[in-house]
Fold each of these.
Amino acid sequence: MRRQRSTIRDVARRAGVSVTTVSHTFSGNGVVNPATQARVRAAATALGYHPDVVASGLRRSRLGVIGLVLRPAVGVEPQHIQDVDYFPRFAGAAALTSLGQGYALMLVADPAVPHAPTTAWACDGIIVTDPVERDPLIAALRAGGMPYTLVGADPADPDDPHVIDIATALITDRVLDHLAASGATRIALVVGTDAIEWNEATVRRYRERTPPAAQHVRHVPERSEHEEGAVAADELLALPEPPDGVYCLTSDHARALVDRLVERGVRVPEDVRVVCGSDADSLRSVAPAITAVDLQPQALGRQAAAALLTQLEPDLALAVPPPEHGALIVRTSTGG
């Protein structure tokens, strides 16, 4: 038979104190001397009692939880997070920063999608990575008065005050300059299809920097098969004047692109130089190793968590080092 769950009254009786004293011990409200607190906690442990943190949080208007929504790169297929180095590093740094201030970080489903679990709203605030254009999640957060921080802007609302800058234009400049310095004169761009700042601002800056007749942009869905990178390589090689430099944003497609170039007898970097827009283990282990952008996921994670924590607690003095945007990890694919 299932054992009946102990209550706060059971703890009070065992510790020889009032229910209010037990409540204050676990909530931090009121004044309870250390010896009494120790007796209450010992009684709770012996009885297997745990306070209802949700109810306690509602009373205090704080749950001690920050939500993290990784979108749209994860979207409705969470397994994709396993293949992207950026997200675990970002989430780990954000979690440690939050923990340092007494908050837990919880990875949650997008609460704005149909049939999302209601627990996705059980947070004091939410960090959203890569919001999509006219993002319904941001609208829902605003309507509900939920504090939020965005990592990258909604392309339709770049002036949102709660955005962590991901410096896409600066990074694009650094990549194009590096490719040119390594000898590339005809640079193509391979980007995703999601309507996010990373894609759209990269394309915009590329077009600003590249003469119209020399522009070659290929859009490859982020969640497509890796072979789509190989298809992009075939399309670029079929041009009357194939590029001698390629900036490919995602790691899976960059690796497939380089594999196809090598398979077709194109020398990398002698014939074509390649830079990937996001570093990953797969780029380091391939031959030739692929030059990549260090997107600073850990620094961005710390910055995003600090920004949201400051919204939740305006008196909090929390300073974190800013990301060093635009750093490239130069490898064989550009002559490194």
Amino acid sequence: MDKHFTDFLAGEVRSRRTALGLTQRDLADMAGVSERFVRFVEQGKPSIQLDSLVAVLDTLGLELHLTTRTSHAARTRAGAGRAEGATS
């Protein structure tokens, strides 16, 4: 998972939780996840269960939205194509 994304997600979850006056334990209990999981999300740990993350976000009234962008694979292929063209 991209470090920028996990840092952003961590900040958003922490900010929303504190704005709602919830402790990590409160949020964990309400979302049906462990307090450790909430800590991991707020620390930006890159390996987390998606279904648990969705439960935490739902509890906080947050949603995860996906948008289309150029994929890493497409950028890599485009770069390889330019490099091949430069050597011809």
Amino acid sequence: MPHSHSDEAAAGDERLKAALWYSLGKTVDSIAIDSNINAAPAFIGALTEMVAAKIAQASTDMEAFAKHAGRSTVHTKDVILLARHNEALQEILQDKAETVRKRDKSTAR
């Protein structure tokens, strides 16, 4: 029986969430060891759900920014716009974008 597109998308989402859980778990464990505390698996699971929801919302927002600008592709400026409420993050993203632009300009010659 062939799999539907939505089944494949759901399986992909689950694989991404599993990778996120693994990565967050490693980070939390490292911090917990350094801080001499223990992080319960339920905490890592809840953190994973929260981060996954935030990622989903961020992607929806960036897609909306691109669509509003008449584009079908998310650009760097959409990512920077997403960070507009966090000045420190916005500055880091702008600096990184400028570094990449300069590098791309120098390698295009």
